[in-house]
Each structure stands twice: as structure tokens, then as C-alpha cells.
Amino acid sequence: MNDPVLVINCGSSSIKYALVPASPDHPRLAGLAERLGGEDARLTGVDGAGREFSCPLHGADHAEAMTAIHERLEGLHPVAVGHRIVHGGERFTRATRIDAGVRRAIEATEALAPLHNPANLTGVKTTLELFPDLPQVAVFDTAFHQTLPPRAYRYALPEGLYRNHGIRRYGFHGSSHAYVSARLDALGGRPHGGWLIAHLGNGCSTCAVWQGRSVDTSMGLTPLEGLVMGTRSGDVDPGLHAHLARQLGWSIARIDTLLNKESGLLGLSGLSNDMRRLEQAAAEHHAGAELAIEVFCYRIAKSLAALSCGLPRLDGIAFTGGIGENASAVRARVIEQLPHFGLRLDAVANAVTFGGHEGRIDLDAGGPELWVIPTDEEGRIAEETRQLLQESHHDAT
To answer: Which of 278, 305, 301 minimizes the C-alpha distance to 290?
Structure first.
């Protein structure tokens, strides 16, 4: 398998995994354990023989699901395990070998990512038990954005909240933005320049990258800030919490559930958080679906325009993620609402559903480039894991 790295992305009720070889010419084995804790829990994926499989897990917890994954990987020998960790605070600026101190530091950031970091740590604990002799590496969503300048990451709040409690903008989807940025440098006609990236899926974020470094991004202290997402509201008036508490008697927990799980495309449409379904409904003149798509696209364009302030020049825009890759009408509508940037969309090229392929969608008229680049977060995590191990080996010798 060409020295593969096992990548683990552990969520609150799921484990996504991939065995990523060093060479892209070798097959990648991947799978998903989902709905963990429920009787409909199931593991799906591709086994070592290249066969697709699907098997019930019947109420399995994370440890039992990891054991099932381990069995599917029998006879395959990863050189290390790379873990996606959502929040690393200010301490972690790059991939880091996991030891007891690192685990405690990740635990200390749980207050900043209560929905994500505890689940990520569950994956670490379980994997350490199953692969005790393998190096375990943490790759942080927030690390790529640790190059933000203070003007981009500080909130206009009293200094003590930042100094004593870490209240600042951190940004997320770092592995995705880092991967797409590197591909733009490899593919684009203007490497190491100024790029805007729109990661659009059920979670959405934008990022401004200058010479391979993040200089601003739409997500903040938590992944709730920024764009309209599948079920997350994105930016709202900070006074909304107090207003709902006063007028409706809602608790902080109730408001948090509203903003994270009941809002976004789902809340606006009253129908679904799935863009495919919304586009079908909008074609049939469903008012809620039409509004949800309109707001979604406008907020993306607005965010990209704002983030361009962080770039000395704009060399291009890239779309990634499930929506960014497949929803050509969304891409067209976003670009249409950025008339001041000299963007020239090639309607024929844009009409393609890229399905895992990279492609340029501008008319190549000398203006900023437009790209669709499917993200590969697992590949990026494996790459950073492998790079860290090579550096450690070099230092040891």
C-alpha cells in the first residue's frame, strides 16, 4: 500500500476514515461508520480487496466501530495515524505528534469546540488502544489560519477576554483551504499570489490566501460565524441572544440549538438543508427554496468581496466542497454578484458537474482566474502527518 497513513475524522455520531497511500497511483481505501449509538448504525466502505461493503453495527459506540474498521483493515499496515482535530486554539500552528501533554491541551480547548473536540479525542483514545505502536498525529482545522494578522483575528472586545480566555477568531476548514491553496499554486497561472477560496458544503467558509498563507477567513471563535450553511445561521446580530431571551424566554442552550441545527438553508427554506433538493424545489417555484438559495449566494459573494480587502491583489477565486464542486448555478450566481472584480465566467465550462475533477471556469481573458477544485482533506491530513514523521526522523539522525 506504499506506506499508507490511516486518517481518522471522528464526529459525535460518526467515524470517517481513509487509508491514504503516499502515491496517488495506489488505491485509497475509505469508509464511514455512521449513526453510532443507534440501532441503525452502519459501516460502509471499500475493503483491502477493493470490494465495496456495507454492514450493520447495531448500536455500536465509537470504540466498537473502530474495532470493526480495524478488522476491515486487517493485513494492511499503516505507518501512522493522522487525526482531524477541529480546534487547536493558539497553541497549535501545525501538525503535532500526540502525547499525554497534547491530549491535555486539546481537552483544554473543549470549551471553544464543545461539539467537535470531545468526539475527536474519543477517536484518539480508541485508535491508541487499537494501534498502540503507531505514531499518532493531530492535524488541526485551526492551524492553517494561525497566520491571520491581529486586525483579522481580534474581536472589538475588552483585552482581558482575549488574553485570559482566548476569545478571538480562529477559523476552520483549514485542511481544505490549505489543500486548495496548494493546488492553485500548482495549477494556476499566478502561483503564490492572492486567492479567495469558497468551501461550500453543509458547513461553509471562505478564506483569503496570500502567498500560501491564510490572511483572513469567515469563521471565527466557533464554526458558526460567517456564511449561511446547511443548518447553521452564520452571522446574526449579536443582540439576537438577548432579544430571544427577553421576548421568548429562551435559554442559551435553546438559542444555541436554533442557530446550529435549525437555521441556515433549512431554516430559510422550511424544507431542507440539502442544496440539491432546494434547487429542485426552486425550479418548481417553492418560495422558501428560492429565498434560501438567494440569501446563500449573496452572503458568499458579500464575504468574498470583504475578504478581498486582505489581499494585495486578487489573482482568482476557487470553489470547493460538495456544493462548490457540483452546484454550477450557485457558482454562477455568486460570480454574477461580484461585478467589480473583472471576473469573466465561461458559462459552458461552468455548466459541468466536476465530480472529483479539477477545472478552470473563466474565459482566460486576463482577469482573475476562476477554478473548481474538489477538496481532499484526508489527503492533506495524510501529507502533513507524513511530513511531520519525516522531519522527526531527520532530526533523530
So the answer is: 278
Among 133, 141, 185, 274, the one annotated catalytic: 141
**pLDDT at position 396:** 67
Alpha carbon distances (Å) from 203 to 222, 320, 338, 348: 12, 12, 22, 28
The pLDDT score that the predictor gives to residue 23 is 86
Q: Residue 102: helix, strand or coil by DSSP?
A: helix
109 Cα distance to chain centroid = 18
pLDDT band at 358 (very low <50, low <70, confident <90, very high): very high
Exposure letters 264-293 (e unless 16+ CB within 10 A, then b): bbbbbbebbbbbeebbebbeeebebbbbbb
Active site residue 47: no
HSE-up (13 A, CA, CB side) for residue 249 = 0
- From the DSSP assignment, how many helices (H) and strands (E) are in the chain? 15, 14
* Pick from 372, 292, 364: nearest CA to 332: 372
Q: Alpha carbon of 125 to those of 21, 29, 131, 375: distances in Å? A: 24, 22, 10, 27
Residue with cell 448555478: 329
Residue 300 CA to residue 294 CA, distance in Å, equals 10
Tens-place pLDDT, residues 197-230: 999 999 999 999 999 999 999 999 999 999 999 9
Neighbours of 116 (CB within 10 A): 22
CA distance 299 to 297: 5
- How do residues 155-194 score in pLDDT, each as one tens digit? 999 999 999 999 999 999 999 999 999 999 999 788 889 9
